[in-house]
Write a structure and sequence with these properties.
methionine biosynthesis (chains A, B), homodimer, 10 helices, acyltransferase (chains A, B), Rossmann fold
Amino acid sequence: MGSKQSVGIVEPKTAVLGDLRLDNGSVLSPTVVAYETYGTLSPNKDNAILICHALSGDAHAAGFHSDGEKRPGWWDEYIGPGKAFDTNQYFVISSNVIGGCKGSSGPMSINPVSGKPYGSSFPFVSIKDMVAAQKLLVESFGIQRLLCVAGGSMGGMQALQWSISYPDALENCIILASSPEHSAMQIAFNEVGRQAILSDPNWNNGLYEDNATPRKGLALARMMGHITYLSDHKMREKFGRNPPRGNLLNSDSDFAVGSYLIYQGESFVDRFDANSYIYVTKALDHFSLGKGQELTKALSPAQCRFLVVSYSSDWLYPPSQSREIVKSLEASDKRVFYVELTTNEGHDSFLLPNQRQEDVIRGFLNMPVNE
Amino acid sequence: MGSKQSVGIVEPKTAVLGDLRLDNGSVLSPTVVAYETYGTLSPNKDNAILICHALSGDAHAAGFHSDGEKRPGWWDEYIGPGKAFDTNQYFVISSNVIGGCKGSSGPMSINPVSGKPYGSSFPFVSIKDMVAAQKLLVESFGIQRLLCVAGGSMGGMQALQWSISYPDALENCIILASSPEHSAMQIAFNEVGRQAILSDPNWNNGLYEDNATPRKGLALARMMGHITYLSDHKMREKFGRNPPRGNLLNSDSDFAVGSYLIYQGESFVDRFDANSYIYVTKALDHFSLGKGQELTKALSPAQCRFLVVSYSSDWLYPPSQSREIVKSLEASDKRVFYVELTTNEGHDSFLLPNQRQEDVIRGFLNMPVNE
């Protein structure tokens, strides 16, 4: 393998696409999708890989928007020249989900009738709808068939949905740290997050103004979510029982782990919208391909090859949920590879540097397609 | 074993005890402790067992306060004639912790200077302070030595603290589903609960009025706590992905598990004080006997016999924390029995009916003391 490089400076783009009839019957018109691309589309348009993001992600998956940007895109570790998704070989597309708040159609979009953001009057968006919007984007490039759709967590749900919504339109599917449906406990954590937002006096039924958003509720939701993305081991390693650093009098917590969570909550509020948090977590909770025979039947239209990866320390999306997917794919004779990686970082593992994960993705993509 | 019976109607009592110098230097004067007793104290006062409650518990551990009361005390399953803590043999004492809100000295106590509740001006209370107040109560009965101190979760921390604060004053110690100190993850969950209360507009730095308490924040804290007390298995069994029962339009959640949590949060607010929630969770988080050699040293003064019980499905206080206690007790040659019970109910297991837990407690108490 060659040396790994950054994709460098990338330009955020926006596509204004056609109408989209949503799962709930509403029509999105137009469908706006924020996206970025890395690498070059081949003349016969057969080297495109679509990357799907998780709950709080966005289209900015790799590189930098400017020289001054401190951190690269969220999956820069895996996308770039010489990296697992090698932009010397592949044309990588990354887009923001609809229902989100990073440039695609969502509650923050302006309602042309009122001239104000839709807020909670934006229609409910499902994982299937997010994928349908991505399909419009992919078609706008003239791409009929993707080499691969890949994602972790909610991104894995989207990848899985791609395989059955558009069986002809992808050759490979990579599903990391994901699930065919949320368990009661996964729903429960999201529910408390939503309740925190609904309890905020600024909530105003989702019709809050720009200068009075439900910041405190959203920060609480993020704090709680953040605990579930880490492992006990990772937290111990990172914080132990240490007191907060810096000026104790200025801290709202007696412990470093507490002040870290408070910081995570507060900085999240500056970059995420409370309505989108509700929309996207509801999309997650309502996504359900069933289990056992029901799941096998749901997955039967798929024609692509699958790579499913789980992480030993992920207690939020435990390996057992990935194995459900694998079992059902095998039951209907799909081509599927499964790897459980031993990690200490909990659900966030798929986002973090991991040579083994890199090798597994690269190996899967390089393998002759009939294997 | 004989047939199990209820202790019947019990009378809540309050003891006004002497001054207590707290860990933080303040003096509690007087020390008020709410308590109940079940069974009869033997003439030579050698059959008394002290029961210690968990975070949201109270002195009402067994029986009923009136004929009309719907549910008996919180550990009625284990306390009564013919039960594990057999009131035909033992005199059982159960008291509310100081810092709590169920009759013992705490933030809801009236500050004689202002004529109003102390609220957040009540002094910080540690697990050691809670135990010191219990010692005053036990002495008020003329009891020099308890046959046993027993508790689960925070109650287990109190039992452990008893064994080293007053090594001469107890013969046996039962520690269920507990820990020698909170991990970063345990602290993190409590921290988010506290932040939820602090974010409530009614919080007013803990000096809220009776008619405007931080209800929403406390309800959120409870909802989140509640998730951590159950197991994924138990939640799936109880709710699965079912929609809420009853009128969907009146529900704030799309899922049964959500409406259950909302109900748990709301009903908790009616019976618990937000300041106490903060005080008691802080006592939990600050309790630290260390680990490894440090823990062994901390436990070295203990002279009693120990029973330590953990629960396979308890991911909040995992069996590894109980084994830490056992390992350190064994390292300094204490008499200790350890049982890991296989259960599906998560952290709440110790509160629930379990024949095996009953047998283990009964067997431990009946065993000749030198075994």
